[in-house]
Structure formats: C-alpha cells, structure tokens
C-alpha cells in the first residue's frame, strides 16, 4: 500500500506552484501513469487506485495556509480557528494524494 501526492490531482492543478505538496521532503512526484510504469517494471500489479482522504483540523489547515502564504484562506481559517468547537474539528479533505494497493505478480492473497 502506498499513499503519495498525485501531480494530476485537482488541487495540484488549481494551486499550481503553490501546491502544498511541492516541498523539500518530497524527492519524487508521481501520477497514475508513473505509478503504473513503476509497478510494471518492479513486478507488481495494481489492485486499486483511489483518492486518499486526509483528516485535517481547522487549526492545522490554518497553519498550512499561513506557511504557504495563502492570505485569503489563512484569514478565513484564522477566524474559524478561534471558535473552540471548530478549532480541532477533524475534517476529511481531498488534498491531492492517492492510495495505491499493489501485490507482487503471481502472489495469492
């Protein structure tokens, strides 16, 4: 099982160079086609590919927007963060990642 940022995701396309996943901790970037090629070369078969929901809090999203200098979103989320019931509310977000489930070719589950 792999989860990784998806360079063909909606969030990547709308945020462009400001996409939150473009940072130094990611040495390589992938999309569905590159994952399929890697799986084929390494002898794996893909069982499932689907969007990956990340669980984030309002507080964490505000931090990310501030860090990435998204002023409008940071302003909105800084207001929401001040509401105690919302501050640590966990929200499933499609942030541009995908989940890939693979198995070695020929192996039986």
From TrEMBL:
GO BP annotation list: methylation
Annotated keywords: Methyltransferase, Transferase
GO MF annotation, one: methyltransferase activity
Protein origin, superkingdom: Bacteria
InterPro entries the record matches: SAM-dependent_MTases_sf
Protein name: Methyltransferase
Gene3D superfamilies found in the cross-reference section: Vaccinia Virus protein VP39 (3.40.50.150)
């Amino acid at each position: 099982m792999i989860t990784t940022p998806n360079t063909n995701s909606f969030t990547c396309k709308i945020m462009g160079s400001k996409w939150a996943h473009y940072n130094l901790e990611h040495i390589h970037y992938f999309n569905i086609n590159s994952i399929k090629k890697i799986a084929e070369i390494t002898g794996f078969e893909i069982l499932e590919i689907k969007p990956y929901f990340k669980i984030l809090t309002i507080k964490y999203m505000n931090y990310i927007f501030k860090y990435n200098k998204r002023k409008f979103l940071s302003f909105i989320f800084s207001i929401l963060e001040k509401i105690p019931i919302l501050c640590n509310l966990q929200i499933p977000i499609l942030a541009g990642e995908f989940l890939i489930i693979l198995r070695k070719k020929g192996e039986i589950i």
